[in-house]
Amino acid sequence: MTTQPQRPPATGPVLTILHGDDLPPGHETIDADPRLGAVRYATADQLPEALPGAQALFVWDLFSEAVTTAWPKADQLRWVHAATAGVDNLMFPGLVDSDVTVTNSRGVFDQPIAEYVLGLVLSFAKDFPGSLDLQRNRVWRHRETERLGGRRALVVGTGPIGRAIARQLSAAGMRVEGAGRTARESDPDFGTVVQASLTGADTDTGTGTVPNLGDALPRADYVVLAAPLTDATRGLVNADALARMKDGARLINIARGQLVVEEDLVSALRHGTIGGAALDVFESEPLPESSPLWELPGVIVSPHMSGDVTGWRSALVELFTDNLDRFLAGEELRNVVDKQRGYVAGA
Question: What protein family is recorded (predicted)?
Answer without folding.
Answer: Belongs to the D-isomer specific 2-hydroxyacid dehydrogenase family.
